[in-house]
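STRUCTURE REQUEST FORM
Protein name: TRAP-type C4-dicarboxylate transport system, small permease component
Source organism: Melghirimyces thermohalophilus
Requested output: structure tokens
Priority: standard
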Amino acid sequence: MKAVKVLDRILEIATSVAFTGLIAVVCIQIMSRYLPYTAVWTEELSRYLFIYAIAFAAPLGIRRQEFIHVDLIFSLFSDETKKKYEGVIYGGVALFSAVVLIHSWSFIQLGIGFSSTTLAVDMSLFYASIGIMFFFLTIYSLLHMIDCIQANRQGSDNR
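Status: completed
Returned output:
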């Protein structure tokens, strides 16, 4: 689990860097409205920083169980059934994420040789955010599913 904590920390730092960069770029964009120089690159960069902030933060949301779920349905279940239900849900998320991850490679290849309008950066760098996000979503969904299975086993052992 030490590797997971290191991975958590890397994603936290990457999210913070992307979000801090986003704030700085938006501040530059706002200030440039009152200056004779217009920073046209800020809109495009802010969009890409936002995408990467989400790509790094979404797996942490799974890790910390911070995504919303419908409590109305969830509260009807016993504790054991909740864990089974949660395990199935995260298994589905892992399966979906793995499928998108596999297909993200062809999407990244589409961006090779094309550059962004104002930043002149290869578009595959921005398309890679899809692969990065779904890679970590797959890992964290599988880890959470394993946690649910272990919690069910421990619960059934205590009976």
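Reviewer notes: The longest helix spans residues 123-157. Residues 2-157 form one domain.
Form closed.
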